[in-house]
Structure to design on (231 residues):
């Protein structure tokens, strides 16, 4: 599904060139549940942003579902992003002036889906996540856990092949975090590929693979189901 070859990213700083990622070689297969871990500043969110095609300023090769991403322009990358990828953020990223129902509809509105079909898809998601009763509420009327649940619902509304989650339970208490992670696990069992960034060992235990980053390098890549290194 995903192949990264010698992917690197730098930024300019007063002290000179700063490396954020160095020689990243990574393959993710469909159906994987991958956790990216490492200390602050290791490059975790940067790597997730590149995989999600939110970041253009990098070097190397990137193939996604047989599309040669590093040769595509911004418009084509955005089309791939919208068609195949769902995002879950630590800070929810819900639009305050839209209801729960409208927030879930936002990513669908960017795609070529008839309005009636979109309405049906949103209704299905509201029912699936058991939040039909909250469809007309605004984000500030929801708890943190409820907002994150809506964020996940929005991410999966278009049946993405890949979900990217950046510290998805960072602002939640343990009970809410467990609910979100069990939801991810169920989605993964149904065939959705998931890549999460987390500091939580508990969250990592839901996946089948852990990638450790340090100073922009992959220092460990472990298959947690088999307990053996994969690369």
């Amino acid at each position: 599904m995903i192949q990264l070859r010698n992917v690197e990213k730098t930024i300019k700083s007063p002290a000179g060139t700063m490396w954020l990622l160095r020689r990243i070689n990574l393959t993710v297969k469909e159906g994987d549940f991958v956790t990216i871990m490492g200390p602050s500043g290791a490059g975790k969110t940067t790597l997730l942003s590149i995989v999600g095609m939110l970041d253009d300023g990098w070097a190397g090769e990137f193939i996604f579902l047989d599309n040669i991403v590093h040769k595509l322009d911004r418009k084509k990358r955005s089309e791939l992003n919208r068609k195949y990828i769902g995002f879950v953020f630590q800070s929810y990223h819900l639009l305050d002036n839209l209801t729960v129902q409208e927030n879930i509809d936002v990513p669908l509105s960017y795609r070529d889906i008839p309005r009636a079909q979109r309405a049906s898809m949103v209704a299905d998601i509201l029912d699936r996540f058991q939040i039909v009763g909250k469809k007309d509420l605004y984000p500030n009327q929801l708890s943190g856990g409820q907002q994150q649940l809506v964020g996940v619902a929005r991410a999966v509304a278009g049946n993405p092949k890949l979900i990217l989650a950046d510290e998805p339970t960072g602002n939640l208490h343990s009970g809410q975090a467990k609910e979100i992670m069990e939801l991810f696990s169920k989605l993964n069992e149904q065939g959705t590929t998931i890549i999460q960034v987390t500091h939580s060992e508990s969250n990592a235990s839901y996946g089948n693979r852990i990638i450790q980053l340090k100073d922009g390098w992959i220092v460990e890549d472990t298959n947690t189901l088999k307990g053996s290194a994969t690369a």
Notes: The first helix runs from residue 44 to 51.
